[in-house]
């Protein structure tokens, strides 16, 4: 019971921290609007995708982008906790380090899911008919995408000692993963080498699955849905093992 209580406490702490930071919530609302209505409108008339509304095309990619950047950013909480001594206190508590990692991962994942869900109402502004059925189909995919990304953030935060170093690593990981995911452009129109680089990116499969759910028959799926889900599950398992191992060795 103490393990479960410890996991719940750490989860609740991360969620409360996120909800109390009003600037971050404001940023969660404003940033997608900028991408949708400035970047999206500009590219809509020059993207060269007949029959597809570019804003509708990038909408699933923006949901994934919000989750990616939030997941990586929230990893910094490990460094903050180490800096202020909180990490040392929970590491010497009776619960195992695996439970500590699980509690932080679940808490940060909840924050990331909130960040992604906040964007959904904006779909109505660009004419995407979001239904309850679509949301229920998208949520499990978002959880699969979130879990692996959060584990990446926590892994690097466990290994890094400074905020500056983590910021550099965060940028080094975020931008390639985002640009290679096909969130902003269709991968069918890019050179072969770029396609293969994108296929090595697990986020590509998340964007493809989410786009299939949100765009329906308008979108020609890159991979079968089963393959998208299989890659995401494998990504989550591998990153969880790596993240737990790195966190258990942290000091």
UniProtKB/TrEMBL annotation:
UniProt KW keywords: Membrane, Transmembrane, Transmembrane helix
TM ranges: 25-45, 57-80, 101-126, 138-160, 172-194, 229-247
Gene Ontology CC terms: ATP-binding cassette (ABC) transporter complex
Ranges of residues in domain ABC transmembrane type-2: 23-250
UniProt topology in membrane: Multi-pass membrane protein
Pfam families, per database record: ABC2_membrane (PF01061)
Cellular location(s): Membrane
Principal location: membrane
Record GO terms (molecular function): ABC-type transporter activity
InterPro entries, per the entry: ABC2_TM, ABC2_TM_bact-type, ABC_2_transport, Daunbcin-R_ABC-transpt, Nod_factor_ABC_transporter
Protein name (record): ABC-2
């Amino acid at each position: 019971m103490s393990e479960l209580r410890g996991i719940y406490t750490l989860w609740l702490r991360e969620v409360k921290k996120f909800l109390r930071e009003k600037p971050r919530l404001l940023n969660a609302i404003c940033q997608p609007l900028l991408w949708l209505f400035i970047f999206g409108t500009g590219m809509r008339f020059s993207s060269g995708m007949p029959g597809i509304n570019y804003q509708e095309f990038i909408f699933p990619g923006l949901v994934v982008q919000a989750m990616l950047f939030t997941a990586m950013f929230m990893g910094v909480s490990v460094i903050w906790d180490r800096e202020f001594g909180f990490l040392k206190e929970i590491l010497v508590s009776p619960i195992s380090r695996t439970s500590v990692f699980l509690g932080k991962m679940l808490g940060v994942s909840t924050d990331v899911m909130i960040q992604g869900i906040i964007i959904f109402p904006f779909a109505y502004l660009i004419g995407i008919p979001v239904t309850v059925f679509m949301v229920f189909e998208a949520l499990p995919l978002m959880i699969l995408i979130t879990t692996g990304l959060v584990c990446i953030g926590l892994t690097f935060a466990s290994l890094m000692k400074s905020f500056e170093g983590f910021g550099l690593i965060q940028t080094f990981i975020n931008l390639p993963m985002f640009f290679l995911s096909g969130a902003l452009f269709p991968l069918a129109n890019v050179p072969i080498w770029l396609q293969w680089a994108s296929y090595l990116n697990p986020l590509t499969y998340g964007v493809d699955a989410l786009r299939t759910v949100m765009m329906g028959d308008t979108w020609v799926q890159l991979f079968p849905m089963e393959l998208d889900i299989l890659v995401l599950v494998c990504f989550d398992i591998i990153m969880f093992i790596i993240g737990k191992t790195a966190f258990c060795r942290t000091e």
